[in-house]
TrEMBL record:
The keyword Oxidoreductase does not apply. The gene is ilvG. Residues 378-525 form the Thiamine pyrophosphate enzyme TPP-binding domain. InterPro entries: DHS-like_NAD/FAD-binding_dom, THDP-binding, Thiamin_PyroP_enz_cen_dom, Thiamin_PyroP_enz_TPP-bd_dom, TPP_enz, TPP_enzyme_TPP-bd. Belongs to the TPP enzyme family. Residues 9-121 form the Thiamine pyrophosphate enzyme N-terminal TPP-binding domain. Its cofactor is thiamine diphosphate. The keyword DNA-binding does not apply. Residues 193-317 form the Thiamine pyrophosphate enzyme central domain. PANTHER family: 2-HYDROXYACYL-COA LYASE 2, THIAMINE PYROPHOSPHATE ENZYMES. This is Acetolactate synthase.
Amino acid sequence: MTERIEGHGGELALAALRAYGVREMFTLSGGHVFPLYDAAHKTDFPIYDVRHEQSAVFAAEAVAKLQRRPGLAALTAGPGVTNGISGLTSAFFNASPVLVLGGRAPQFRWGSGSLQEMDHLPLVAPVTKHAETVFSADDIPRAVAAALTTALTPHRGPVFLDFPLEAIFSVGDAELPAGPQLSPLEADPDEVASAARLIAGAARPVIIAGSDVWTGDAVDELRAAAEALTVPVFTNGMGRGALPPEHPLAFAKARRVALSNADVVVVIGTPLDFRLSFGDFGEAQVVHIVDAPSQRAGHVQPAAAPAGDLRGILTALADHPGDRVDHDDWVAQLRTAEDAAKARDAEEMAAETDPIRPARIYGELRKVLARDAVTIGDGGDFVSYAGRYLEPAQPGTWLDPGPYGCLGTGMGYAMGARVTHPDRQVCVLMGDGAAGFSLMDVESLVRQKLPVVIVVGNNGIWGLEKHPMRAMYGYDVAADLQPELRYDRVVGALGGAGETVAKATELGPALQRAFDAGVPYLVNVLTDPADAYPRSSNLA
């Protein structure tokens, strides 16, 4: 028998949210969404508030990414919503099932100039899977359920609803949604079989697994397919850690050797974008495995492109009944390259130079990070080193801005990570440029007793801009920050703690103090501004 619910718009929305597994709300206080707060307060539904709306959306996205279920941000009308659009856009690029509920000026006097009156939908529609204004309290549970179903349906992504004042403050009556009922999308079996034959018959195949392997809960199936076909695996995004570093088929350092010599490159659950040379791997054939037909690359013609439930596709690859080429020599060749690269990295991570080289920071972090630590990257140059030197040991422990490359995720991601994992280490790796976007939200972490460790690589410049600009023009502009700025004192003023480190030998003890502190703690590491991450421009 269908259950009916009655209440004001906030109560109706919250009942539907609970049915879909939403367990907390991230917000910045605003009168247009007071009924949501009232409903949450009366039912002990946790509310976490921030100092900038982008942090609320980033926190909701962290929950969505880490827990593979909807994350919720509630934003007031007008500037509340517009301040959250960068977070929505990141969630869109990252396929994160985030629901943003917005307040809205009253409809009955629309056009009269109410406070913060604007039509949000034209702004958010391009960066959401669904955007809708709900004009009746009775219609709120239906709209929430439909939006969340859309958000959770592969290819996943954010959705947006806003409520005029008279809708959310009014009392309504509606059926309680039953919760998510999603059926896996079956891939074309002929396309899957074609992919399996290409991989099994290749002499030098390589797998690159991305975030959708984690999001689609296909980590075990990835391992089974790699092991059954004996294919070396590289990862990016939240695919990192899908195979632990000690796994014989897990690789991280030999990617250039692998992609330069592979005859079949299998890209699973990640787009063929700038991070993967736009899908151009020379003479190698490309197999692109995605969770929905919409994710097939339009600029590349793959040899095979199965689209559907990744668990089913990967299971079929593991069960391939045909002949298989022996890949042991290929795996051994890559292992030799991997070990040589690791030896070079070990030397860099032990460098005793002062000023401190960024590699040394990651060498010290590797000594103190637990296997299940959640590591968050928020930055450009400094976080590029993280991708090279840190190797997550478990899936679902790595958060970075993703292909949109939006800075300012750090404190919101930290909040969502700490809410998700109250007993794990949470470490934010932040460039000094990125620190300017969200560091004020340390106050939110302090006030709500959410301790995290923040490591700032402080070189006093915009590293990914200063060095390339000088190479192009012989000079640089708008690329300098205040040298040796005391970001640790900023955190101390906000109620946390921290210290500045200028010598490599001080790093280890400082990091240990940070993880033992029990409050938001910032280790401000003065690094060499001349030491830039070696990479070519990916702007094109």
